[in-house]
Amino acid sequence: AEDLDLGQDVKVDVVVSEWMGYFLFFENMLPSVLSVRDRYLKPDGLMLPSSCRLYLAPLEDSAWRSSKLGFWKNVSGIDM
Questions:
Q1: Bridge-partner residues for 64, per DSSP?
Q2: Which residues are catalytic, by number?
């Protein structure tokens, strides 16, 4: 999207993009979409989608946690 060139003084009514990766941000598309918005969208233009919601819930996975952090329980005989 950063390479998109519609020419000078070209403004659009709508920007449609699928910019949301997993957890909304991890594909790093948001900067590209904002760049296109800032360069080409008319002041009263419409972004689609224009908003999003992120829902989080606490989770405990003791097996995963132990596999990632259990190493520190015994480092050369020392409990870190």
A1: none
A2: 18, 27
Strands 12-16 and 41-48 turn out to be parallel
How do residues 39-60 score in pLDDT, each as one tens digit?
999 999 999 988 888 888 998 9
Residue numbers in the chain where pLDDT is lower than 50: none
Query: Residue with structure tokens 């008319």?
Result: 42
Which amino acid is it at 69? L
Q: Report the 3 state secondary structure along the chain.
A: CCCCCCCCCCCEEEEECCCCECCECCCCCHHHHHHHHHHHEEEEEEEECCCCCCCCCCCCCHHHHHHHHHHHHCECCECC
Other C-beta atoms closer than 10 Å to the C-beta of 74 total 10
User: Among candidates 34, 48, 42, which has minimal Cα distance to 1?
Assistant: 34
